[in-house]
């Protein structure tokens, strides 16, 4: 047992920009900004937005634009991508766009990178064109991005203006051990998508830590785990609100996706036993309950995973209930302490992960 005093675990938000039944994307963006302002006041570290395409129920198809909107409407909250699907984009364009954001909002912009398409194969081909197999270039594209951001690239024939010489932290996102291995080799912080791929969480974290090589930006591993959280005043109310999330994952399982649906009193009439079990497996890194329940469950989760930061996705239909969920979670997280020795992720230059 470490003699160092425990410290508070960082906590953040992944905003999927889900479109609720009866809303338009414009309504979703307004609610996203309200949430960003809300969590900024509650002590959350950052809000990341995802990249998805060809999904009627998800409005985050242009993450860099949404990042600018959210950063412009807040003052201290870090805002970033969770993530930009790098094979969909030219590294130079990503460097220029994120460099523009970092110039507008200094020391507040994060760049999370993933290799998945964020869509179906048909839409992926429409996005990538002749670069349909660009996922194979993911490691090389990350290093190219790092080059564009470096001050040393000023003598190159191709430069990212703005972007060059700016501090834009890069995070590797993943849902498999392959991405964990790459993040470790590159010495970059790693964010795992356990909110939809929980089965690989522990193997991926193990592989990341075992293969971590100190880099110019990070001397020790830094891990973010994204989970689903629905908090309410009672366990019963949280479980009722969580049926919105269960319906969303049922749509993934059945291929019948819809806009975000209101909660129901029971899921029994909506799914078969096999579908219930399948959804349950996909949501095994999900936490529903009152403050007392969440405090106990999240303490066990952080003890098991030894993460440095908890990122939460909250798929809640009623906007007021979602804001309240994040208020309750902030109160819970202020009581979740982890030993100092378990919080790695120190920058080589002596600082810490922003």
TrEMBL record:
This is Luciferase-like monooxygenase. It comes from the Bacteria. GO terms for molecular function: oxidoreductase activity, acting on paired donors, with incorporation or reduction of molecular oxygen. Residues 21-252 form the Luciferase-like domain. GO terms for cellular component: cytosol. Gene3D superfamilies: Luciferase-like domain. PANTHER family: LUCIFERASE-LIKE MONOOXYGENASE. InterPro entries: Bact_Lucif_Oxidored, CmoO-like, Luciferase-like_dom, Luciferase-like_sf. It holds the Pfam family Bac_luciferase. To bacterial alkanal monooxygenase alpha and beta chains.
């Amino acid at each position: 047992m470490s003699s160092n005093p425990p410290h508070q675990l960082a906590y953040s938000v992944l905003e999927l920009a889900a479109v609720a039944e009866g809303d338009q994307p414009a309504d979703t963006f307004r609610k996203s900004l309200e949430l960003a302002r809300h969590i900024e006041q509650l002590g959350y570290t950052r809000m990341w937005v995802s990249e998805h395409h060809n999904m009627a129920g998800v409005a985050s198809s242009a993450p860099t634009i949404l990042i600018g909107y959210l950063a412009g409407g807040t003052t201290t909250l870090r805002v970033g991508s969770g993530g930009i699907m790098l094979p969909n984009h030219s590294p130079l364009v990503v460097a220029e766009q994120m460099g523009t954001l970092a110039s507008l909002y200094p020391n507040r912009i994060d760049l999370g990178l993933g290799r998945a398409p964020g869509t179906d194969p048909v839409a992926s081909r429409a996005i990538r064109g002749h670069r349909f197999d660009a996922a194979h270039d993911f490691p090389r594209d990350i290093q190219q991005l790092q080059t564009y951001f470096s001050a040393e690239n000023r003598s190159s024939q191709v430069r990212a203006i703005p972007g060059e010489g700016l501090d834009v932290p890069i995070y590797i996102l993943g849902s498999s051990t392959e991405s964990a291995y790459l993040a470790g080799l590159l010495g970059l912080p790693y964010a795992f998508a356990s909110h939809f791929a929980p089965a690989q969480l522990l193997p991926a974290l193990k592989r990341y830590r075992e293969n971590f090589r100190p880099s110019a930006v990070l001397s020790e591993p830094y891990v973010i785990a994204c989970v689903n959280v629905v908090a309410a005043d009672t366990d019963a109310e949280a479980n009722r609100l969580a049926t919105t999330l269960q319906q969303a994952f049922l749509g993934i399982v059945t291929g019948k996706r819809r806009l975000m649906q209101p909660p129901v009193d029971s899921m029994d009439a909506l799914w078969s036993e096999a579908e219930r079990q399948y959804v349950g497996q996909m949501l095994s890194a999900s936490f529903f309950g009152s403050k007392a329940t969440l405090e106990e469950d999240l303490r066990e989760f952080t003890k098991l995973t030894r993460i440095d930061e908890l990122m939460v996705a909250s798929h809640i239909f009623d906007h007021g209930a979602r804001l309240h969920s994040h208020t309750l979670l902030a109160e819970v997280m202020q009581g979740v302490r982890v030993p100092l020795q378990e919080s790695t992720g120190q920058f080589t230059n002596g600082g810490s992960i922003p």
